[in-house]
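worker-03 picked up job from queue 'complexes'. Input manifest follows; two sequence lines, order preserved.
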Amino acid sequence: MSEKATRAAYGEALAELGAVNDKVVVLDADLAHATMTLTFKNAYPERHFNAGIAEANMVDMAAGMSTMGLIPFCSTFAMFGAGRAYEQVRNSIAYPKLNVKLAMTHAGVSVGEDGGSHQCIEDLALMRAIPGMTVICPADANETRKAVFAAAEMQGPVYLRLARLASPVFEEDYPFEIGKANVLRDGNDVAVFATGLMVSEALEAAKLLEAEGKSVAVINVHTIKPIDAQCVMDYAQKCSRVVTVEEHSVIGGLGDAVADVLMGKICCQFKKIGVQDQFGQSGKAKDVLKEYGLTAPQIAENIKAVF
Amino acid sequence: MNTAELKQFCTEVRRDIINMTANAGSGHPGGSLSATELMSAIFCTQMRIDPKNPKDPDRDRFVLSKGHCAPCYYGILAELGFFDKAEFQNFRQLHSILQGHPDMKKTPGVDASTGSLGQGVSIATGMALGAKYLGKDTKVYTILGDGECQEGQVWEAFMAANHYKLDNLTVVIDNNGLQIDGSNDEVMSLGDLAAKLKAFGFHTIELADGNDIEAVVAALNEPTTPGKPKAILAHTVKGKGVSFMENQMGWHGKAPNEEQRQQALKELEG
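worker-03 finished. Artifact:
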């Protein structure tokens, strides 16, 4: 299986989108080489606006540009875009329902070496809490491309969570519709809802468990908000065991979104796999993921806890 | 509008501010009254706008960065016919089109939702940048408070306005000298604002009396240096026009009671 970072796919998708939609402009905060909006800049230099290291102003300039009929894609690291500029996103973009796309890279602990200060594990929680915000976390490069086009197509604010680390690109071409989860693997004993880079890990974990005679469904929840409640309900009912896997804090992200759907409606075993209310740290990305229990064998072990 | 008409317009707006805040029992009269000439002159003498077509894509844009001074904004918009003055009754009430702070989704004529200080100036900068990119001749105006300039984001926006040579952007600072906890100098000194604006690349005009409508219009009429954003640093009087509110920091966010309303309206009969 080939590997590619979702941020790399983002930059390429932006350039491709730029060719067919002249309303698309891109803002970055001195990280174009890392967020990969550089790919767009190389193709359309006059449509790429650097805000300098000033994320609050970047986000609000994007708000202003959107009121002029443009479709701004705004990028920096998730820590700064969702964290530092949270209130700008909340008040100047989401509150007036402006058509700004916030594509934030370097989300999660797979940032690796830069360490805990740069590993945003709260962005899904922050963005999900904002009324009217669409929150998408693509599982691979292909899905990222589709998510970028779908985000540009829809009216209103979108948060796109992207990763630094090169990750597997699925061979199969899955459909993508905002708000519609994809069942990648069917099963009867446990429903594993995963998002982002954890989707491929969850699939690997499912294979490991299959060898032990457990039938594991793996569902790619690329849209955290609005979540595909029907799919969550159906699979919780069918499997009566639910596990969520995310490269994010277990507080406020995919796990809580799934729990919110099920609470008071379905009685099932339930477990959230993610970063357990602690900060990340420096290390090679794969080592850091392992440190926080986010590799396939560890996920498989954790899934066993609901049996 | 000629000067006499502008003065009358400002008096009407001041009466609207008093009535709105008194009706609501809350709101921000002090900074609304200090900014009346600045905002009125922008709307009445500068902007290309049509109250019958508030969403015209070719209109000029205004952003009230000091969003708490919504009563002044609403007064002007209603006087110009963007909505009926009967709406004043509902200011700050449930389901009103007149929210406590400007809401572009609810109020005809409002171009940006603001109120969280420091953000409006960035939005205005983005509008000006967007207009340039689109090749439009749109002009963008924004008013900020002096206290608001304590927000670091304001200076981020100023840097960007200069970097992108936004000579279609006019930034007006309502320098009334007072904020919630005291005078600017007591709370957090702003230093030499005019020198700072110049250092940030603005074509800077300092107005000794920002409540002198003729001076305000003249400053707005002065062309900016090509390639430079324009800043007007206007020294104003907080609570201007109502004797017991003038230069009183207590009137930042407090509404007049019925007796005070009557006295204020009497003083504003002109």
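worker-03 released lock.
Chain A has a mean pLDDT of 98.
Chain A has 13 helices and 14 strands.
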